[in-house]
Specification:
By secondary structure, this protein is mostly helical. The protein has helices spanning 7-41, 44-73, 75-94, 99-125, 130-161, 164-169, 172-184, 199-222, 227-249, 263-292, 298-304, 306-326, 329-345, 355-358, 360-383, 390-410, 412-416, 422-446. It folds into 3 domains: 8-188, Up-down Bundle (Growth Hormone, Chain: A); 199-249; 256-459, MFS general substrate transporter like domains (Growth Hormone, Chain: A), CATH 1.20.1250.20. Helix 10 packs antiparallel against helix 11 and helix 10 (263-292) packs parallel to helix 16. The longest helix has 35 residues, at 7-41. InterPro entries: MFS, MFS_dom, MFS_trans_sf.
Length: 459
Amino acid sequence: MTETMTSQQRLVVAIAALASFVAFLDGTIVNVALPAISRELGGGLVTQQWVVDAYLITLSALILLAGSLSDAYGRILIMRIGLIGFGIASIGIAVAPNPEILIIGRALQGAAGAFLVPSSLALITSTMRGALQARAIGMWTALTTGAMVVGPVIGGLFVDYLSWRFAFLINVLPIAITLWLLTRLQHPDRRDPGARIDWLGAILCTLGLGLAVFALIEQPNLGWGSPAIWMPLAGGILLFLLFLLRQRTVPSPILPLGLFRVRNFWSGNITTLFVYAALSLNGFVVAVYLQQGAGLSATLAGLASLPITIMTIVLSSRMGALSGKYGPRFFMTVGPIVMAIGALLLLAVGEDFDYWWQVLPSMLVFGLGLAVTVSPLTAAILGSIESERSGIASAVNNAVARVAGLLIIAMLALVTGGGLDLAGFHQANIVAAALLLIGGVVSFVGIRNPRRERITTDS
C-alpha cells in the first residue's frame, strides 16, 4: 500500500519547491533580459557577462558552505536568511542606476540563492524517508522545473511590455508566500552545535573564482600582458589551489575530495562540467542573439527554447526508468552526442532568419538529447555514493555545474571571437557541440554499469 503524505509533509514539499523555484526562476529570466539591460545601462557584452557571472560566482562558491551552515544552525533558519536576502537583492537590482550596482546586487542574489537549494532539499530528506522521500524529491523536481518553462516567457513579457526591472521583482511574491508558509510549519529546526564550518575554505574558493573570472571577462579589453589581467588570474588560480589543498587537511571540508575516488562520481562530474558548460553557453547565446542579431522580441526569444524544456519534462522520468533498468552509461554517452547534433543544427541560422527551419529543429534535437542525459547523469553520480552522503554529493555536483557555466560565460569573448554577431553565434555553437562530444566520450570511457561503487571515507 502506498504511503500517503501528511499535511505537514505536503507543506514541507511546497516550501522546498517554492524556495528553490525562486533561485531557478531568476536564473532563467536573466538571459532574455540581458539585451534590454545592456541597452539601458550600457557596457555591452562585458556587462552581460558580469550580470550572469556575478550571480554564479557567489552561488558556486557558497553552495557547499550552505550545507554546513544548515547542519549547524538549522534548515529553516538558513532558508529564511536566503529568502530574505534574495528578496532584498532583487529589489536592489530592480532599482540599480548603473551596471556596477546591478552586478553587486546579482552577486548578493547568488549568495542568497546558495542558501536556498541545499536547505530546501535538506528539509525534505530530514522529514521523510524511503519511498516517500523519493516521491517528495520527484515532486520537488517537477515543480522546480516549472521555473524553466515560465522563466523565459515571464521575463520576455516584462521586458517587452513593462521593463526588465520588473522581471527581477517577480521573485518577491513567491518569497513572501514561502516565508508565510514557514510560519505554518510545525517541524522542529534540527541543529548540530558541534558542526564545524570551514569559513576560510569558503573565502579562498570565492576569491579564487572571482579573480579568475574577472581576468577572463576583462582580458579582451586589456590584453593578457596587462598586470590588471595576469595578476588576478594568477592570484585566483593560486587561491583556488590553496582551497583544494585545505580541503585535504581540514577536519570538516566543504568539498570532500575523498568522494572523487569513486569512478562514477568523478567521471560523472567531469561529464557534468562539459555538458553544463555547453548548456550555459547555448542558453546565453541563443537568448541574446535571437534578440540582438535576429531581431526577435524578448518574449519570442524566451519562447524559442521552450521545446527543450517541454521535452525534458515529458521524457526525463522515462529515461530515468530506462537508465535504472539498463544502466546509465549508454544514455550518458548518446545523450550528449545528440545534444551536440542539436547545437550544430544552429549553424543553419543565417542573415535571412527563419525560426521554424533554422532554430526549431535544433531545439527539438537538443531537447531530446538533454532528456536522455539529465536523469541518468544524476542517478549515476548520486547512486555511486552511499545514501548517508547523498546530500553533499548532490551539492558537489550542483557546484560543478554552476562553475562550468561560470567559466564558459567568462570566456565568451574568446569563444565568439569578440562579439555575438552571426559568425560569433556560429562559433559558440561549434564550441558547445565540441564540449558535448567530450562529455559523451568521458561517459563512455569512465562510467560503469554493473556495480555501483560505494564510498565510506569521510574526506
